[in-house]
Amino acid sequence: MQKLIFFVGVAGTGKTTVARKLAARIPASFLDRDTVGGRFVEHILIQNGLDPNDRDSEFYKENLRDLEYDTTKDICIENLAAGQNVFMISPFTAELKNKQWIEDVIASAGLTRSEVDVKVIVVTLTDMELQKNRIIDRQTVRDQWKLSNWDSFATRVQFVPEINWDIPASSITVFDNSGDLTDEKVESLYRFVTEKQPISL
After folding, report:
1. Residue 201 belongs to what H/E stretch?
2. DSSP state of 120
3. Is the pLDDT of residue 162 over 80?
4. How far apart (Å, rounded) are the C-alpha atoms in residues 76 and 71?
5. How much is the pTM?
6. In what order do the strands lie in the sheet containing 172-176?
7. Are residues 2 and 117 in contact, defined by beta-carbon separation less than 8 angstroms?
């Protein structure tokens, strides 16, 4: 079965880092939504006289958010159709709530549920201060709003998103990325990804 693995979680939890560790062991197309749409979004924001690094404005949410996600989805579908495993990295908060979304992705690739093993890795941190420090350390201008409004950001963060997809509970894991990302932790995620799961129909 092809693997379609989602690495979800809020900013600073280490989604991309975790995904890269597994990509070193599992051949897969690596689709980080920030990379897919970043340059285009920045250009459009600048054209509209806005901060190119702002992903929290109403303009971004209303005009660009879905554009980034839908483009990433389209690339995912093309790679699935070509027989590739796919790693998807982004919060996917709205998409996870939409039961039909994952069905449409698989069907659009010309595949069936029996041909694609869908798994979700929710990357979290139990230590909010550690999360803040990681956001500071990566020195991304895009995160400035979060740091300037940290108390508000911290209280509204949904660490484990609502997942309404029709997949077995055993295909979802919550991974606490606090502390070092040891070989043992990576191995546990590798076993989770490669273990065959029952198909929910």
Report:
1. none
2. E
3. yes
4. 9
5. 0.86
6. 29-32, 86-89, 2-8, 116-124, 172-176
7. yes
